[in-house]
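Colleagues,

Please find the record for the two-part complex below.
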Amino acid sequence: MTIRVIGRHIREGFKNLIRNGWMTFASVSAVAITLLILGVSLVVALNAQQLSRYVAGQLEINVFLDPKLTDAQGQQVAQEVRRLPGVESVQFISKEKGLAQLQRDIGSDYNDVLGELSAKNPLPVQLVVKATDPRQTLAVGEEIRSLPGVHQVNDGKSFVDKLFAFLDAVRNIGLVFVAALIVTAMFLISNTIKITIFARRREIEIMKLVGATNWFIRWPFIWEGILIGAIGTMIPYGIIVYAYQSLFDRAGGVFFALAFPLMPTAEVAVRVGEVLFTVGLFIGIWGGVMSVRRFLRV
Amino acid sequence: MIEMHDVWKEYPNGTVALSGISVKVKKGEFIYVVGPSGAGKSTFIKLMYREERPTKGHIFVNGFNIERLKDRKVPYLRRNIGVVFQDFKLLHKLTAYENVAFALEVLSVPQRQIRRRVRDVLEWVGLGDKADMLPSQLSGGEQQRIAVARALVNNPAVIIADEPTGNLDPDTSWGIMKLFQRINDRGTTIVMATHNKDIVNTMRKRVIAIENGRIVRDEPRGTYGYDD
């Protein structure tokens, strides 16, 4: 196929778009709305991922050793914890330091009581452990729990579980929604092209009579689908990138309430663009191919 | 050029249109196909350009074995055949020139060649000065000339015409028939289904009469043979 012939097919496809303007408008809108929702979900998902990584990165395992252990014995346990796989860092908080922290936390009003306590310090040695991979936090916590001399492990299990369950649920609901919309958009495209095929049946008949090849007849309709897909992608893509940019600027790059850093616009543009254009063109090509297969018997 | 051996055609609804047709058409012949409505003339003609496929039998057209011809090869058969219809089958939004050029454009012929060939063929059918008119601005005879020009522009070996004068008044019909005679004089084979008694009886050619799906008569320089 020469460039000139491809050019003709695209030109014809474009003419088809203009000829049945309202149907084109409807199917472009369907694609655009589908991809707008897909894109917005994607932006949310990407930032939720960013959030979970950020939050999980802040998650620590608080390990309280047996109160009977001295600081020196505590150091030994800390060494053992450091040797465990998946452990990134261990912060050692001695009995002294623990008491000082407690004093700072509850304030000077109770200095008297605490002053008495400091004589025979009943606080246990505390270790603050970070896992290399945030998703491994719970497994690491489990390992530590089985070590001798460990009294209590607080690994934020319930919080981490809830966070990940919530993110998964959001993603799944979004996927179902988007899948249904994609099917709708495909059918609208294929119906739009069916109308073009019907409107051009006389031309198609003549093309067949004078010996145009089947693919020569089909291509303009497939291009019509591709163009609908492409236009239907560019609109929501533009909206999303522009809206995200202005939101990002206004928020100063951090998410208001949680104060976690947002994903930069350039990265969002690339990742959302990849998905939207892939899905958009796929919808368009599929709609075109389906309509020539179902409605165009050549 | 065209050969049929014991060709049968039964439509899916059970109608038997042709029952055992055998015929040979040599290159450069001019043939009328006559017979009552519904006798199988149209089916006979449609088999030649593979608009319909035979239920049984062998058909050869210009070296193509029709029964073995794959769907995607049909276009290459059609490029050797020009087809003309009673209702012209023109595109109303295109000018005379564009209608003829359309047949070459869809074969991806370079634009410069298209321009030359379309101008030549329009001149040849006598419409050189009406190239930029729309079909609606032309008479029935002139519209049929465009259709003939479109069938001719690719220099086919055969022209198949299904009642080309069916919609035209007698004078205009004669003009179109003279055009077909000139095409035939160039060596192009012509197969024409017709109901026009005067033409068949005056411009004598080989006549094939079909009744109830069978060839009942095949005479060189024959007559129409029916009253209406």
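Strands of chain B lie at 2-10, 16-25, 30-34, 56-61, 64-65, 81-85, 158-162, 189-193, 206-211, 214-219.

Comments are welcome before we finalize the supplementary table.
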